[in-house]
Design goal:
DUF1931 family protein; 10 helices; about 5% strand; Histone, subunit A; two-stranded parallel ribbon; mainly alpha; Histone-fold; 2 domains; about 240 residues
């Protein structure tokens, strides 16, 4: 702004030679910092290029390095790929409330959002263990598809699934479990009927987990890290 005003004063002849030359030098210095800058009376089609001290038209203006390289046929330097962000499971306030209500109904336990990570890791690992065995069964039977009958559902787990379904009529945890029903890629692909059973299986595992806390520690109210580790060790022996 100062440089533009200075050029206006120089052009008007208000300041004589003793002042015009130093003022012009100062204006040139300012114009060399930012380009392009319009002069008074110039249209948008022209701009002052401060580093050369000449007027340039729109087709002569400076281009970005990337654009110039592309127009000149040179390969454009690619930006380094962004590191993928880790996936983060987002639980709404309502989801956390249902999660807490389920454990209270299943075994009189008080859990909170800090237990969600341990719980999620547990159900992920156990579902994958069941599918690993089911995959081996499907392979032994010469099938590329995992069917429901391939899943190693024991009598105790089946009963836990049935009890979960009764509790879930009030808690309505199943929609949340559908989001947790994920697993790594397998050599055999589960069919749709098998995938549809995941939420109920996770629900049965969740009920068995809650009751396992009470069996090991009858007076337990708020499971701590050691209690989660103990429960995980028991399930690892059985599943």
């Amino acid at each position: 702004m100062f440089a533009t005003a200075a050029f206006g004063l120089i052009s008007s002849g208000i300041w004589g030679p003793p002042y015009a030359e130093p003022l012009r030098d100062a204006a040139f210095a300012l114009l060399s910092v930012r380009t392009p800058v319009r002069l008074p009376g110039q249209s948008d089609a022209w701009a002052w290029q401060g580093n050369t001290g000449r007027l340039i038209g729109p087709d002569m203006r400076m281009r970005s390095r990337a654009l110039s390289a592309r127009l000149n046929g040179k390969p454009r330097d690619r930006e380094p790929p962004r590191r993928p962000q880790p996936e983060v499971a987002v639980m709404t306030v309502m989801s956390i409330a249902r999660f807490e209500r389920f454990f209270r109904a299943a075994a009189g336990l008080d859990v909170d959002k800090n237990d969600l990570k341990r719980y999620s890791d547990f159900v992920d690992a156990k579902l994958y263990d069941l599918l690993t065995v089911a995959q081996a069964t499907a392979k032994a039977n010469g099938r590329d598809i995992i069917r429901t009958c391939d899943l190693p559902i024991t009598k105790g787990l089946q009963e836990s699934i049935h009890r979960f379904q009764k509790i879930d009529q009030e808690v309505e945890l199943k929609p949340i479990l559908e989001q947790l029903a994920t697993h790594p890629a397998l050599d055999r692909t589960p069919d749709e009927e098998t995938e549809a059973t995941y939420p109920d299986i996770i629900g049965g595992l969740s009920l068995a987990l809650a009751q396992n806390f009470k069996i090991l520690h009858p007076d337990l109210k708020n499971p701590q890290t050691q209690h989660w580790d103990e429960a995980r060790a028991v399930f690892d022996l059985l599943l």
